[in-house]
Amino acid sequence: MNFTNRSVGDIVAENYHAAGVFRQYGIDFCCGGGQLLSAICEKKGVSLETVQEELESVYGKEDCGSENYSDWSPSFLIDYIINRHHTFVRNKTPEIAVYAAKVSRVHGEKHPENREIFEIFTRLANKLMEHLGSEESTVFPLIRSVSEAMENGNAVPAGMLKDLKLELNKMEEEHEAAGEAMRQIRNLSNGFTPPQDACTTYRILYKNLEGFENDLHKHVHLENNILFRKAEGLLGQHFCQ
């Protein structure tokens, strides 16, 4: 298989196991999902041939097609995102915030990067709560309404189409900001690697932050590269009628 001139987002949308390959080489497949594999490998100084070989190996696994999110309807995908990823964010954010506050307070003088991590995560948590609310109250209902109208052969009001397009752009901008916040935390924490003198809470914090980033990557990927592309496809179909 030749992945050279395909976007990294499309590759992961087809087979989410590819995310592990991209994560290994620090390739952003969620917010940066529109970039071609060849271009991003050149930019990062990564061997395109090596990445290509590892992707081919991943695609050869028997269970690679266990969850083909691209085949799911917009409504089913929305339910999955809310139940899986929105619930995860709402449950884990307060827990991580408590750990971050304690580590910042106890270890902040010797390891001042933890004060920055606490501040960045606190801002991120507040923004994410607003973001999830906007998606659930505005964006997702718009996608459902447009999808259902198209399926039933009904006309979609022009105002609804305009609102959806604007909301999709806004959500993607907010995804980029969230991704950047986690990149800053990853850098400050030395790739979520605690120092030798780290206590148990310190280690738990970094482990949770790493898990939070991994979930955020998949969460944003499902929205940016699959759900929102499906929504844009519906908009395109409507205007072509």
From TrEMBL:
Gene3D superfamilies: nmb1532 protein domain like (1.20.120.520). One of its GO terms (cellular component) is cytoplasm. It is found in: Cytoplasm. Keywords: Coiled coil, Cytoplasm, Iron, Metal-binding. Its main location: cytoplasm. GO terms for molecular function: metal ion binding. Residues 161-188 form a coiled coil. Residues 80-231 form the Hemerythrin-like domain. It holds the Pfam family ScdA_N. InterPro entries: Hemerythrin-like (IPR012312), RIC_family (IPR019903). PANTHER family: IRON-SULFUR CLUSTER REPAIR PROTEIN YTFE. This is Iron-sulfur cluster repair di-iron protein.
